[in-house]
Amino acid sequence: MILGFVEWEAGEPLETSLQMLTLARDVADQTGTSLAAVAFGEEGAAVADHLGEYGVERVHHVADDRLTPYAPAAWGQALADLLEDHRPEAVLAPGTDRCQEVLAHVGATCDLPMAADCTAVEAGDAYEVTRHRWGGSLVEHARLEASTKLLSTAVHEVPIEPADVPTDPTVHTVEPTVDAEDLRVQVDRREESDVEGVPLGEARVVVGGGRGVGGPEDFDQLEELADLLDGALGSSRAAVNEGWRPHDDQIGLTGTKITPDIYIACGISGAVQHWVGCKGADTVLAINTDPEAAIMQKGEYAVVGDLHEIVPELNEALREREG
Ligand SMILES: Cc1cc2nc3c(=O)[nH]c(=O)nc-3n(C[C@H](O)[C@H](O)[C@H](O)COP(=O)(O)OP(=O)(O)OC[C@H]3O[C@@H](n4cnc5c(N)ncnc54)[C@H](O)[C@@H]3O)c2cc1C
Prior knowledge:
The termini are far apart. Helix 7 (272-278) links the parallel strand 14 (262-266) and strand 15 (283-288). This protein has helices spanning 15-31, 48-51, 72-86, 97-110, 219-228, 237-241, 272-278, 294-298, 307-322, and strands spanning 2-5, 8-9, 12-13, 35-40, 58-62, 90-94, 114-123, 127-133, 138-144, 149-153, 170-174, 205-209, 232-235, 262-266, 283-288, 301-304. The model has no long low-confidence stretch (mean pLDDT 95). The chain is of the alpha/beta class and 323 residues long. Helix 5 packs parallel to helix 9. It binds flavin-adenine dinucleotide. Flavin-adenine dinucleotide binds at residues 210-212, 236-239, 250-255, 267-269, 271, 273-274, 277, 287-290, 293, 306-308.
């Protein structure tokens, strides 16, 4: 059995989980074994309705109320229990922060190695995996040998493909053996982001601002540009560290990875940690006073100049066109 760890929102699997299931099904096909999934929380069972399309035959639903708010060690223990009971050939999880954390707990508890951010697997006795390092700026080929292989999939790197033959998954309730110690770290409240409009990770147009914007109030021009293009506003970590923008806006290695049709980067140097978050854009247009800035070399279009002059002119032209 290959086991996929599925994250969901409002009873539906997240895109990153479907990407993972696509790779997991490929591994199951290669090894001639079945594909199962595990889901936590009250709507975990409802998720099963969406997983047949991806070839999942069995869903393990961890229904313990104590584990409904995210608790990394407890979720890891629940997965470790499943490993003990079912001895899967491999466990795959999407490379989100949470899933990486949980998988790391499983590795530590079960003394198993883990390969993070994989994009492809050749399954034999050992698995030959292709994986991203440094946010994708380095591609590594590695060999994973273990009784159960633990792998996470690089986010937005495996295109989602439904199974040729859909399945009708059965749901099995799991009762994990967690104790108070496993629940020492647990989410106790959630705050909704006050960022409005299109989510950064899904936007077709993104306008990003960096230290070159110069201050929080100067982001208004960029926000207007994003609005005129029905896009989302993002920023570099420098702008977040300055307190000009919320962390939700951060693009990069430790922020959101974006995949828009066009990314307009204003006053951003294009450090590698920023680039790995925006290189999934079809087109990058950089506006920068420094023609030597890394982003000016890497992007498709470079406008040399002061963003405080160029962005208002762009807005003006777009407003005129709209009018
Ligand atoms: C572990 C780690 C993780 C990191 N993760 C991230 C991450 O997720 N995302 C991220 O962004 N960074 C990240 N960083 C930080 C990263 O290394 C850079 O420091 C950061 O991206 C720089 O931000 P910036 O380009 O806005 O600022 P700077 O590097 O200071 O660049 C500012 C740019 O603005 C230009 N400029 C100045 N004035 C103007 C003007 N008037 N008009 C036009 N252009 C102008 C300058 O020429 C310059 O190119 C991380 C670093 C580390 C160590």
